[in-house]
Write a structure and sequence with these properties.
The strands form three sheets. Strands 1-10-9-8-11-12 form a six-stranded parallel β-sheet, with helices on both faces. Strands 6-5-4-7 form a four-stranded parallel β-sheet, with helices on both faces. The chain is 45% helix and 16% strand. Helix 2 crosses helix 9 and helix 5 packs parallel to helix 6. It is α/β, with parallel strands linked by helices. It is globular and about 90 Å long. It folds into three domains: 151 residues, 3-Layer(aba) Sandwich (Rossmann fold); 198 residues, Rossmann fold (3-Layer(aba) Sandwich), CATH 3.40.50.1980; 36 residues.
Length: 440
């Protein structure tokens, strides 16, 4: 069977066709809501019994209520099972990610004199608990463990734990356990899909209720987060992978095509586009991609072919650089890589992207694993209003104010006027002459 990479020529598309090109796989969650509602209700009502049943029926894994949590011996066995080179890579990635997120940490408290005798500021404290979701359906992802848990640990969250589907053997992936320990997390639970979100939202006999859940997941996970948003903070929207590779006239189409493969191999629900104003680059890339597919295993090759030959991937040919950048901003991709001899010249024009990686020496692979900035990024256009996962997702601020005796009169007089205008008699009374009398 011959697979041909899709070519989308923006100059020939209608407005409706351009709008359709911006759609993601998860744009329509309606078909997931009914079954997810049933799963959520079962976990709420039955707790661990439901988790064991769903592990058997959905994950094809035999676990018991006693084995939902990974035991200390599991961590030790995982470390012994992995090759030294992989252990070194996990440690290297953990340290890079930790260094970046430590640099994000704000001062624990600030207080500024905004007017003479008026001091305002805020104190910063971590949220109480967070569940970090690590998918497994299309592989094992220790990198997601590091990206979700490390900023939470750096932020000082008292309780951080991992939720991840069990494998067919009923165990947690070895590298996932090693990564969790490198991050400083000892709680790992064998639970995936919508049932994991429900367990974090309600708590079960084994899994503690969490205040927030973070991490990417399938449409089932995304649907559960939406359904339970009034029970648990669902965090940054993180659904199926998506990327745009932008290549200007100075780029090499073969190299751009190599980077286009990266996110296309995540799964058939991914989105991946090469956007360029150059027909030469488009043709170079289109010609090179089939040879790259030959280097992939069957599963990843099938995923990439499904994406790049379908409606959610391929090559987007723009009339010029301005039209290409406009498409990128409309799309607001999770990942953006800029191929150019002068990549910084395009940086200012990009307004909406979860991450921007600049130049041929900064492929998405580095960003996904160990560059440092977080790779849990907003998807489905949420980059227009959301940021990558970071320490600030695990911190909250509390406003602080202090007014001296000398500064009180001016503030009270103006506050009294506003309170009277809005009709709040109690507010006005609290800053009236009565207060001055009581404080004297």
């Amino acid at each position: 069977m011959t697979f041909e990479v899709r070519l989308h020529d923006l100059t020939r598309l209608s407005q409706d066709e351009k709008t359709e090109l911006l759609r993601r796989t998860e744009s329509d969650l309606d078909r997931y809501l009914e079954p997810v509602t049933s799963i959520v209700k079962a976990v709420r009502d039955e707790g661990d019994r439901a988790l064991v049943r769903f592990a058997r029926d959905l994950d094809k894994a035999a676990i018991t209520a006693d084995s939902i949590r990974a035991h200390p011996a599991d961590f030790e066995a995982a470390s012994a099972a992995l090759a030294p080179e992989l252990l070194e890579a996990i440690a290297f990635a953990a340290e890079s990610i930790r260094r970046f997120h430590r640099g994000q940490m704000p001062e624990p408290m600030r207080l500024n004199e905004t007017r003479p005798g008026v001091f305002c500021g805020e104190k910063v404290t971590p949220i109480p608990s967070v569940a970090c979701y690590v998918p497994r359906g299309k592989g094992a992802f220790p990198s997601v463990v590091l990206m979700t848990t490390i900023p939470a640990v750096v932020a000082g969250v008292p309780r951080v734990y991992v939720l991840t589907p069990p494998g067919p053997d009923g165990r947690v992936d070895d590298a996932t356990l090693v990564a969790a320990r490198h991050a400083g997390v000892e709680e790992v639970y064998k639970c995936g899909g919508a049932q994991a979100v429900a367990a974090a939202a309600y708590g079960t006999e084994t899994i503690p209720r969490a205040d927030k859940i973070v991490g990417p997941g399938s449409p089932w996970v995304v649907a559960a987060k939406r359904l339970l948003a009034d029970k648990i903070d669902p965090g940054t929207p993180a659904g199926p992978s998506e990327s745009i590779i932008f290549a200007d006239d100075s780029a090499d189409g073969r190299l751009a095509a190599l980077d286009l493969i990266i996110e296309s191999e995540h799964g058939p629900d991914s989105s991946a586009f090469l956007v360029t104003p150059s027909r030469r680059i488009a043709e170079q890339a289109r010609e090179a991609i089939p040879s790259y597919w030959e280097s992939l295993g069957e599963t990843r090759r099938t995923f990439s072919q499904t994406v790049l030959c379908g409606p959610r991937g391929g090559i987007v040919l723009a009339a010029d650089t301005q039209e290409a950048i406009a498409f990128i901003n409309d799309y607001a991709p999770e990942h953006l890589m800029i191929h150019s001899d002068e990549p910084f010249q395009h940086l200012g024009a990009v307004q909406h992207a979860g991450e921007i990686l600049l130049g041929r020496h900064t492929p998405l692979t580095l960003g996904n694993y160990l560059l440092g900035p977080n790779a849990v990024l907003p998807t489905s256009g949420a980059a227009r209003t959301h940021s990558p996962l970071c320490v600030h997702d695990f911190l909250k601020t509390t406003g602080i104010g202090y007014v001296t005796a000398g500064a009180y009169d001016q503030l009270a007089e103006n506050a009294h006027r506003l309170a009277v205008y809005e009709g709040f008699d109690g507010h006005a009374l609290a800053v009236s002459a009565l207060r001055k009398k009581l404080m004297s």
